[in-house]
Task: inverse folding
């Protein structure tokens, strides 16, 4: 294993036995990846590990990142990027097989959000003006409370459990006139 990869695995406290090659030249990590509270401003260096899939949870909350570039494409567990300084979801995993939490950032829209979130999709406590995630499939609840939403335009077509949108300047008529 090259020295640079060994150094990065140590830096991010990842077990090299869980860092597994895939057929496409990328890697899978078997287990949880916990990057929470590491004072990271970017995940680009982490991206040098070329991890495509995480078989576990990926937790990168409580950092200072403004984008998610460098993170894996598939998370076979929960993905938590809450309480960063995110202004975009660029680099967000496309498939999250449990809960997605991006609350407490500086997001104004949900461009680049995952295609599939099998559990809850939590984007509360941001500055979101428009949802613009109509093609996202959510297996749980969409929690978009405490944002700046003025309408439900762009709301996902498939949400299996419900929508929480209190504390937004949405007209109640807008909400009740919707067919989900």
Result:
């Amino acid at each position: 294993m090259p020295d640079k990869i060994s150094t990065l695995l140590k830096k991010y406290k990842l077990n090299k036995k869980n860092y597994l090659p895939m057929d496409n030249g990328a890697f899978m990590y078997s287990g949880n990846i916990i990057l929470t509270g590491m004072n990271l401003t970017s995940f680009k260096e982490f991206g040098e590990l070329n991890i495509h899939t995480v078989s576990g949870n990926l937790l990168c909350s409580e950092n200072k990142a403004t984008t998610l570039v460098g993170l894996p494409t598939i998370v076979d567990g929960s993905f938590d990027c809450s309480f960063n300084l995110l202004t975009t979801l660029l680099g967000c995993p496309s498939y999250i097989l449990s809960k997605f939490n991006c609350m407490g950032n500086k997001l104004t829209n949900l461009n680049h959000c995952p295609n599939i979130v099998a559990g809850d999709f939590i984007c509360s406590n941001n500055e979101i003006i428009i949802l613009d995630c109509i093609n996202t499939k959510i297996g749980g609840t969409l929690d978009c409370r405490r944002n700046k939403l003025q309408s439900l335009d762009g709301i996902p077509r498939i949400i299996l459990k419900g929508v929480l949108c209190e504390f937004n300047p949405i007209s109640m008529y807008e909400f009740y006139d919707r067919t989900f």
In short: DSSP finds three helices and 15 strands in the chain. The chain has a mean pLDDT of 94. The radius of gyration is 17 Å.
